[in-house]
Amino acid sequence: MKATYDNTNNKTFAALKLIEYIYHCGMIKKHVFTNILMEYSERIDVSQFKI
Predict the structure, then answer these.
(1) How far apart are CA 40 and CA 9, in angstroms?
(2) Burial (Cβ within 10 Å: 0-12, 13-18, ≥19) of residue 44
(3) pTM, whole model, 2 decimals?
(4) Burial 5-37 (b: 16+ CB within 10 A, else e)
(5) What tens digit of pLDDT does each residue of 1-51 get?
(6) Could you give the C-alpha distances from 34 to 7, 16, 31, in angstroms and in order?
C-alpha cells in the first residue's frame, strides 16, 4: 500500500500515536484501539503501531 504523507496525515498519525499511548496505559481496551487503527488503515501505515 502506498500511503501519502501530507500535513493532514501527519496530524492523524500523531493522534493515533497518542491513542496508542493511552491504550498502553490501560485507559482503553484492545478491541477499541484495534478498531480505531483499522478505521484509518487506508490513509496511515498502521504497521508502525504496537497492539
Answers:
(1) 10
(2) buried
(3) 0.80
(4) eeeeeeeebeebeebbeebeeeeeeeeebeebb
(5) 555 556 788 899 999 999 999 999 999 999 999 999 999 998 888 899 998
(6) 23, 11, 5
Helix axes of 30-39 and 7-24: crossing angle, nearest 10 degrees: 170
User: What does the angle CA 29 – CA 9 – CA 4 come to, to the nearest 5 degrees?
Assistant: 120
How far apart are the C-alpha atoms of 11 and 19, rounded to whole Å? 12
The single residue listed with the C-alpha cell 496525515 is 9
Assigned C-alpha cell, 40: 484509518
Integer CA distances (angstroms), 35 to 3, 5, 30, 48, in order: 19, 22, 9, 15
